[in-house]
Each structure stands twice: as C-alpha cells, then as structure tokens.
Amino acid sequence: MITGAIKNKIDKIWTDLWAGGITNPLTVIEQLTYLMFIRSLDEKELENEEYENMTGEAMEKIFPQSEAGQSMRWSKLKDKDSREIFAIMSSRVFPAIKKMKYGKLPDFVDGELQEIPDDPRKQESNTAFARYMDDAMFLIPTPQVLEKIITGLEDLYLNDISDLDMQGDLYEYMLGKLATAGQNGQFRTPKHIREMMVELLQPTPDDTICDPACGTAGFLVSACEYIRRHYEDTMTSEQWEHFAGPAFTGFDMDRTMLRISAMNLMLHSITNPEIDYKDSVSKQNQIRGKYTVCLANPPFKGTIDAESINDDLKAVTNTKKTELLFLALFLRIMATGGRCACIVPDGVLFGSSKAHKSIRQELIENHQLRAVISMPSGVFKPYAGVSTAILVFTKTGAGGTDKVWFYDMTADGFSLDDKRSEVKENDIPDIIARFHNMEAEADRARSEKSFMVPKEEIVENSYDLSINKYKKAEYVAVEYPSTAELMTRLHELEMEITAGLAELEEML
Question: Do both 358 and 414 map to the same domain?
Fold first, then answer.
C-alpha cells in the first residue's frame, strides 16, 4: 500500500524535476519511466548472475561484458559523481537502450555504439517497452537534478518497495498526476471506475483482453489485478504463460503512451503484452473476432480522415465520430460471446443522427445490450466535466436483447467538484451487486435508481438509451398556507416592523 510517507517521497522527486524545468506531467512520468526501466535491467542481470553462480549454467547477458558495457549498470553508476553519472546516462545508457535487440544492450567500441547484428536464429525478446524507445528523448537537464532523482528512486526501492505490486501502485500514483486531457480528448479513467467495469465483466485467466485506446493501460492493469486476485492460486502454467503476454492487448497512436503503458504492465508482471502503435479505427487495423473481453474509454473528439476509416466500421455507422466508430470496432474485434464494457459520452445514448441511431440499433437488434449505467458529470474532473455512461454488451451476431438494465449513478465515492475528495456516498458496490443479480431487478419501479426496460419500448423510442427517457420522477405534493393566512402573516410582520422603527426613533 502506498502510504503518505511514500507519496511524499514521490512528490519530492516530482518537485526536483519540476524545479529543473520539466513541468509537463507526461514528460516527468516518461523520464522517470526510463530510469525505472534502466534499473530493472540491472535487477534482471543481478538475478541472472546469482542463478549462474548457484547452478553453473551460463545465462544470456543483458549488458556487454566490456568496461563501457558494465559502466552502464545502475548498481555501478548510482554512487558515482553526479557529472559522471550524467555523462554515462546521456552518452551511453540512453543511446544503448534505444538500440536494444534480442533482450541485449549493444556495446561501445572506441566510444562508438555498435549495432547488434540481426540473427535469424533468435526471436525478438525485447519487452514491449524497449520496442518503442526509438524516438525517446533524455530530457533531464543537469547532473544535479539527475543525481537527486536517482537518490530518490534508490531510497524508494530500498526502503519502501517490497514487491512488484507496490511498484505497480507507485506507478499508478504517478499516473494519477496526469491532470490534463490530450489533444484527441483522451484522459485517464479513474481507477475506481475502471475496477467497477472490470468487476462487471469478471475476466478469467483464459480471456484475451483488449483496449484499443489504451493510453496508460489502466484497464489492462485493472483486469490483470482482478485475475490475480481471484485466480492466482489456481492458475495452470499454461494460463500463467498466457497471462504474461498474449492475454493483454492495447493499441494507441501516441508512442509516449505506448512506452508508459508497456512499463505499467511490466510492473504488474505482464512482461510481453501486445502493445502496438495502431490507429484502431483505420484500414491499418484488420483484426476481427479475436478478443473475448474489451474494456475501453475511447477518445470523444479529434479529427479522423474519412478516407482512412475502415470500411467495415462505416458499414455499421457511417460517421467520422470516434465514439461511434469505436463501438463498431468493439463488435468487429471481439469473438462471438465476447463481453464489452466501454465509456461513451451521453450524446451516443440519444443522438438523433442516422449514424447514432444505426449503432444503437446494431447493439440492440443484432447483439445483446445488457446495461446502460449513467454516470454523473463530475466523474472525470478535473480533466473534463463531460456527462458519460457505461455500456455493457455481449457480441452475439444473432440478437439477444430482451430487456436493458438502466442504473442512475449519482455518487462514486468522491466529491463531484475539481477537488474530488473522498465522500461516504458511493453507488459502485450497489451497481456491481445488482448487475450480478438481474433476477431481483425485474420488478423494480422506474422511480428507483435501477430498473429494467423492455426492448420493445426502446425500439418505439428510436433506440433512445438516455435514462431520463424511461425514469419516472416522484412528485411529492406540498401543501401551502391559504392566501388569507399569508395576508394575515404579512400584516403581523408589518406591525412588528412599525413597532421596531418607533422604538428605534425613541432611542435617538
């Protein structure tokens, strides 16, 4: 668990970077990510050396055995003079990890970085993180700032981080500082909302999980944590192998986000996930029928070149709106029986355009729309005040929507202002409990927080999915005093005022 003391240490590192001129939270996290990765390589090398000494079995080396190669190891450079650390990091370590291949760092000869030759006998064994290092930039400005950060990270690792789970929690805390939305409208989904959506779908070790707009990989991490929490003691070796990589797939168009998401997954025991640079709704993405679970909060705005949009998606909803195209994408990339929980802006629920109606009709008529959970507009503050909802559906290809469950979430355990302080009111446990006990929901009144609406009624309303279309408000009659009583009371007040003024005049 991340305590207040650990948070203070992270905040101190953050402040050192900020004081050094790096004020963009995304850049801060990216630079810290590089250092954490460099340290993790040396940790892995130390483990290999220990195993080699114990068994006598030769292990593949990550760092070159030359003097220059060994000088790049975290354990050997962290205690050097700050100027020497900075020189090694900027001129050796960073260029080397950008050219990492087959899980190995290249060597230096006469100060020149050597390319690792291609070897057809070897499979590419780099982590997903290393695959996206080509355009990375080392931006820590001075030796003094670098020394402070290395000292701060060492203190955290040696005194506070006891296991991989805590590393993941530490990284999640840092990601929580991303308080600005990207230019395409993407922003980080709060952890408790992600965990609720995962609880609704209940992924298993056999599932193949995808987030085609993965950002920092929050949904994949939440799914990973759910599986470990419920199945860790019963998983087979085949399931663990699946869990370490193929079980989790994420796409994004921002290479910085790909590096950060790959690191986030690596810190949660997912060493080789399918993290790819891909415009999910373009013709570049031809995946279909592959995944059993989709979890996503796709971007709600941004421009898309109409010519690049995949024709399969336009056939379902002919539009350039990303929120509609992603719904069509989920249906295409999921296998039959696949489950999806995704966040959409409210406009998707009631938009009157042909594209809006066609995607809602597709979900209801050709698949099984299970739930519409309306969320309060403050859920994404301080990023944005947009009103959103969660759609939960199953791909069937043969219909199956009989009734749709609606829930009016009014509280998520945090205040709905920019501060987002913890509060007692929280509908999330109730949402999860009710969703997994639908039989008890059948007879609930439309005036309650949750209720069922038959498919026929939704069809009659042009497939409108806004909760206010079906929710019934309870009006409580209020009795007011008669006009005569009100006039009498007004006269009494007038007399009291007159008496008070007369008393005040006598005092003057």
Answer: yes
